[in-house]
Design brief:
By secondary structure, the chain is mainly alpha-helical. It is built from seven helices and three strands. Strands 1-2-3 form a three-stranded antiparallel sheet, with no helix packed on it. Helix 2 crosses helix 6.
Length: 100
């Protein structure tokens, strides 16, 4: 997790090489302002190494104008509009699924 309940400063993330690819993609998608809005929210931030594991063609596509809508959808899956603490991460995906 990168940020919980505070602003996500894109320039700070560009300087932190672990999140350089994510920061680039957020900028390309045009979502910097949304992530600088007042929270609380939690960003599940993939590291540069996670993006490096993708096929190069996939990442190249996401960086194009044609891939922008798909990129936006992917980024949405990495933001929760609430505070999610580390101990809650395993349960986070189940909160809206109802009882099992």
């Amino acid at each position: 997790m990168c940020s919980v309940g505070r602003r996500w400063h894109l320039p700070d993330r560009r300087r932190d090489r672990r999140f350089s690819t994510l920061a680039e993609l957020v900028g390309l998608a045009g979502h910097q302002d949304a992530l600088n809005a007042k929270g609380p929210y939690t960003i599940f931030a993939p590291t540069h190494e996670a993006f490096a594991a993708l096929p190069e063609s996939t990442l190249d596509h996401l960086k194009t104008q044609e891939g922008k809508a798909e990129l936006t959808e992917i980024l949405k899956f990495h933001v929760a509009d609430s505070t999610v603490l580390a101990g809650e991460v395993a349960l986070a995906g189940r909160k809206n699924e109802g009882p099992r």
